[in-house]
Amino acid sequence: MHKDVNMVYRNIRISGSDPRSISATVVGVAVTVVLCLGALAPVARVLGGARPASVRLAWDSFHGEFHVGLDPLSAVFLLPILVVSPLAAVYGGCYLYSFRGRKSLVAAWLPFNLFVAGMIMVVIARTAIVFMTAWEIMSLSTFFLVAFEDENAEPRRAGWIYLVASHLGAAFLFAMFMLIGGRAGGLDFDDFARLPARGPVWSGVIFGLALVGFGAKAGLVPLHAWLPEAHPAAPSHVSALMSGVMIKLGLYGLLRVVGFLGRPAPWWGPTLATLGLLSALFAVALALHQRDAKRVLAYSSIENMGLIALALGLGLWAMAKGAPEPAVMAISAGLLHVWNHAIMKSLMFLAAGCVLHGTGERNIEKLGGLMKRMPWTGGAMMAGAVAIAALPPMNGFTSKWMIYMSLLKWGLSTDGGGLPALLGAGLLALVGGLVAITFVRLAGIVLLGSPRTTDAANAHESSWWMLAPMMILLGLCLGAAVAPGALAGLFSGAVAQITAGDRTTAARVILPPLGTLGATNALVIAMLAAAMGGMAALTRVATTGPTWGCGYAAPSSRIQYTGGSFAATVALKLLPRVLRPRISQIAPRGLFPARALFHSDSPDPLTTRVYEPFFQRMGDRFSRLRVLQQGQVNVYLGYIVVVLLVTLAWAAFRGGWGRS
Amino acid sequence: MAEILDPILITALALNFVALGVSRVKGAVNAVALQGILLGTLPLLVHPEIHPRGIVLVVVTIALKGYVLPWFLLHAMREANIRHEVNPVVGYKSSLFLGAVGTGLAIVYSSTLPLASEHAGMLFVPASLATVWTGFLLLTTRREAIMQVLGYLVLENGLFVFGVLLLEAMPFLVEAGVLLDLFTAVFVMGIIIHQIGREFSSISTEHLSELKE
Question: What are the helix (H) ranges across A546-592?
Answer without folding.
Answer: 563-568
